[in-house]
Write a structure and sequence with these properties.
There is one protein chain. By secondary structure, this protein is an alpha/beta fold. It has two domains: 162 residues, Rossmann fold (3-Layer(aba) Sandwich), CATH 3.40.50; 120 residues, Rossmann fold (3-Layer(aba) Sandwich). Helix content is 43%, strand content 13%. The strands form three sheets. Strands 2-1-3-4 form a four-stranded parallel beta sheet, with helices on both faces. Helix 7 links the parallel strand 5 and strand 6. Helix 2 packs across helix 5, helix 2 packs across helix 6 and helix 5 runs antiparallel to helix 6. The protein binds zinc ion. Zinc ion binds next to loops.
């Protein structure tokens, strides 16, 4: 009897030193596994723009996966079963926050409870630098990546999170972060110069949804979105009529569709303006809430920013 008891104790004890022990490998962070020190670190990001920053900072120490690929609208996106598996298997999670991932908000609130490695990359941005357009009804505009210098702050937040998780990699993350910061500074300067190729009165950007307010502020464009701040609300006939008037009044040469939003409403504006005698063009396709396909130049954050500005400037000249 005594021997059996001892054996049981050993068994229990042995069980508690291994991986299978309840409590071991888990912590108070909502049952999320703590990173065990194994490289590469599994990083899950919601959008491609966030994944791109993490890859630039962490390089080979990370294996970065974005949940939302090309053409995906984050406002409407719901996590799939396989996303949940990916999120559960992640060592660190980065999401945009500011309600961009509208349908996943509750999910992130739940899994971030007590977990310092579920990080909204916008969380430490100075509220004074954030926009709060009336259409957002008291919420901040989440489309911060279109002000390149604001996005550089998101990069800083990612760098900080990675160093906290993996202090041994600090030198690498700092080096990657510094290189990225320089790249973003150059991209910002390029964007400012490219914008100035258009005279001020031609710097008006008409597009489907209000994704470009930060872009407008940073690079001197008046921005007019056809549908509200999120794509959840559809543009109504009154919005379309107002936009046709605006386009004619300001003699706008080109308006733009977006890769992650249905082009129908913008096409309708063009058709209605033409019917009233103003020949406005669809100036091209802009990337707003998703980057281009992987492996193409637009499949990177930098490529996306350059593509947008080149498209806008060339069509509006
Ligand atoms: Zn959007």
């Amino acid at each position: 009897m005594k021997r059996m008891f001892l054996g049981l104790m050993i068994l229990l004890f042995a069980g508690c030193t291994g991986d299978g022990c309840t409590g071991e490998g888990k912590n108070a962070r909502g049952g999320q596994k703590k990173w065990g020190g194994k490289l590469p670190i599994r990083v899950v990001a919601t959008t491609g723009m966030i994944a791109d920053l993490a890859e630039n900072i962490g390089g080979e120490r990370l294996r970065v996966e974005a949940l939302m690929g090309a053409g995906v609208d984050p406002h409407l996106y719901k996590a799939t079963a396989s996303d949940i598996t990916k999120l559960n298997g992640a060592d660190i999670i980065f999401y945009n926050g500011l309600n961009l991932e509208g349908k996943m908000g509750d999910l992130f609130v739940r899994i971030s409870r007590g977990n310092p490695f579920v990080i909204a990359v916008t969380e430490e941005m100075d509220p004074n630098t954030l926009l709060e357009p009336p259409a957002f009804q008291g919420h901040y505009d989440p489309h911060v990546w279109f002000d390149v210098m604001l996005w550089a702050q998101a990069a800083k937040r990612i760098e900080k999170g990675l160093i906290e998780l993996d202090p041994k990699g600090e030198a690498d993350y700092k080096a990657g972060g510094a290189k990225l910061a320089q790249k973003l500074k150059d991209l910002h300067q390029w964007s400012r110069n490219r914008s100035k190729e258009l005279p001020e009165q031609k710097r008006i950007l008409v597009t489907s949804h209000d994704a470009y307010n930060y872009f407008g502020r940073a690079y001197g464009f008046e921005v007019v979105g056809l549908q509200g701040i999120s794509t959840v609300t559809q543009a109504g006939l009154a919005d379309i009529a107002k936009m046709v008037d605006f386009t004619m009044r300001n003699k706008i040469k080109a308006i733009f569709v977006e890769t992650s939003v249905s082009p129908k409403a913008i096409q309708r504006v063009r058709d209605d303006a033409r019917a009233r005698g103003w020949d406005v063009q669809i100036g091209g396709e802009l990337f707003s809430d998703a980057m281009g396909k992987e492996g193409t130049p637009e499949g990177t954050y930098e490529g996306m920013v350059r593509h947008n500005l080149n498209t806008i400037v060339e069509a509006s000249k």
